[in-house]
Write a structure and sequence with these properties.
The protein is an alpha/beta fold. α2 packs across α3. It folds into two domains: 168 residues, P-loop containing nucleotide triphosphate hydrolases (Rossmann fold, 3-Layer(aba) Sandwich); 65 residues, no CATH class. The strands form two sheets. Strands 6-7-8-3-9-10 form a six-stranded mixed sheet, with helices on both faces. The protein is built from eight helices and ten strands. Bound molecules: adenosine-5'-triphosphate and magnesium ion. The site of adenosine-5'-triphosphate has 11 residues, from β2 and α1. The site of magnesium ion has 2 residues, from α1. GO terms for molecular function: ABC-type sulfate transporter activity; ATP binding; ATP hydrolysis activity. One of its GO terms (cellular component) is ATP-binding cassette (ABC) transporter complex. This is Probable transport protein.
Length: 245
């Protein structure tokens, strides 16, 4: 796969309300070029909202998103060079594995030769090459997730945003996909932000953990830092509770 210069992201004072509910409150976060960041926090703490704002699926009420020094807060989704896999972002049921992966390339009118080459690379990378012509209903849950990830990677994004990409899968497949994501990141150190409810997943994969509580960042640190020195009693009990689940 072609090596690209990956992007750093600066989230500056992002706030978002839904009616009178403050979903995010002055969130500041720097995501370093090529890093793997896990967003964790209780249900409703604003993880998906932050990811959607990063992707350009939602607009913040105030604040700015900088990508490699450029203010992208109002750049439309299709111009952001970000790949995303959201839990409810399903595969197209009437398209085969290959066609699903090629979807973004078709939209961008990539030549058929280049498209074929890219699809073949991804089929191999994702270990989907034995069934390029199957339809989504003929795949297991883990295989479907890998197709969704391949589709996100096909357009060579500079940032990968994953909202609980491995949720709703059984433990064994989660583990396989987790290893696979680590492996992928090792090969192409794509700047990646992922949301997870699985504490171990966050600790095993991420360089940096961001803990959200009620729309506010409670702590940012390496896995070791947040475990050894939780910023407050909320982080401590949240991590403790999760570790023993
Ligand atoms: N479109 C919307 N309209 C109204 N409220 C919303 C909307 N989207 C999110 N919210 C509210 O904003 C808060 C944050 O939601 P968000 O989806 O970001 O949480 P989350 O941390 O991803 O939670 P979970 O772990 O359950 O996925 C929640 O209280 C949610 O109900
Ligand atoms: Mg969510």
């Amino acid at each position: 796969m072609r090596r690209t210069i990956f992007m750093s992201i600066l989230i500056e004072n992002i706030s978002k309300k839904f009616d009178s509910f403050q979903a995010l409150h002055q969130v500041n976060l720097e995501i370093k070029n090529g890093s793997l960041v896990a967003l964790v926090g209780p249900s409703g703490s604003g993880k998906s909202t932050l990811l959607r704002i990063l992707a350009g699926l939602d607009k913040p009420d105030s604040g700015r998103i900088w990508v490699d020094g450029e203010n992208t807060t109002h750049v439309p989704l299709q111009n952001r060079e970000m790949g995303f896999v959201f839990q409810n972002y399903a595969l197209f049921p009437h398209l085969t594995v290959s066609q699903n992966i090629a979807f973004g390339l078709d939209i961008r009118k990539v030549s058929s030769e280049k498209k074929q080459q890219r699809v073949n690379e991804l089929l191999q990378l994702m270990q989907l090459d034995t069934f390029p012509d199957r339809y989504p209903h003929q795949l297991s849950g883990g295989q479907r997730q890998r197709v969704a990830l391949a589709r996100a990677l096909a357009v060579e994004p500079k940032v990968l945003l994953l909202d609980e990409p491995f949720a709703a899968l059984d433990a064994k497949i989660r583990k396989q996909l987790r290893n696979w994501l680590r492996h992928l990141h090792h090969h192409i150190s794509l700047t990646t932000v992922f949301v997870t409810h699985d504490h171990m997943e966050a600790f095993e994969l991420a360089h940096e953990i961001v803990v959200l509580e009620k729309g506010v960042i409670a702590q940012i640190g390496t896995p070791q830092e947040v475990i050894d020195h939780p910023a407050n009693s909320f982080v401590e009990s949240f991590l403790d509770k999760k570790t023993h689940e």
